[in-house]
Amino acid sequence: xxxxxxxxxxxxxxxxxxxxxxxxxxxxxxxxxxxxxxxxxxxxxxxxxxxxxxxxxxxxxxxxxxxxxxxxxxxxxxxxxxxxxxxxxxxxxxxxxxxxxxxxxxxxxxxxxx
Amino acid sequence: xxxxxxxxxxxxxxxxxxxxxxxxxxxxxxxxxxxxxxxxxxxxxxxxxxxxxxxxxxxxxxxxxxxxxxxxxxxxxxxxxxxxxxxxxxxxxxxxxxxxxxxxxxxxxxxxxxxxx
Lengths: 114, 117
Description:
The complex is a heterodimer.
Chain A: E1 4-6, E2 9-13, E3 18-24, E4 31-37, E5 43-50, E6 55-58, E7 61-66, E8 71-76, E9 85-94, E10 100-104, E11 108-113
Parallel strand pairs in A: 2-11
Antiparallel strand pairs in A: 1-3, 3-8, 4-5, 4-9, 6-7, 7-8, 9-10, 9-11
Chain B: E1 5-7, E2 10-13, E3 19-24, E4 31-38, E5 42-50, E6 53-56, E7 65-71, E8 74-79, E9 88-95, E10 107-108, E11 112-116
Parallel strand pairs in B: 2-11
Antiparallel strand pairs in B: 1-3, 3-8, 4-5, 4-9, 5-6, 7-8, 9-10, 9-11
């Protein structure tokens, strides 16, 4: 079955880069996503990458995909206090019923050190 | 649109009681998802609907859990009887189209924090 793994915690100094890593098992995933959850809120889509891409950049965010190793990472440049949140990696895949569903990792809690 | 609306935001109930969580998806979205978030298990998909029809309920933990979507603008998740291990944050999300491609972002509600004592 599908499985998405992330480390639970990451602490970074303000102004440094944050790198959040994720591994997944389903090689048939066509899209991989990063969602952000701020305190007391639901998840919001941050960015996504199509599986035939190696990299996607969007302002301070860089997504790297190593499809061979099934490894996805999110880099946040110049990390700010507003980046404090839980970041979820997710893959879309086909369920046992032939329909598509998102499988989320456990989330990485990013803490910014002033 | 106000986004996905869940109610209540917080629920505290005693073990054995029935709990009903409610969700109003974004108008026009044809997919609705129920997720559960705990520290130990992270975010788990419980069930999802397409055009009000349950498609995949393999994530529903046991028969105590049931979900309905009587129309395109309303869904409920019911736990009967509730147990302390059901304590979690329950999220509803909706999307248009399937979960691939540019127009397939899942929009989440703010969640219902359930505590069963």
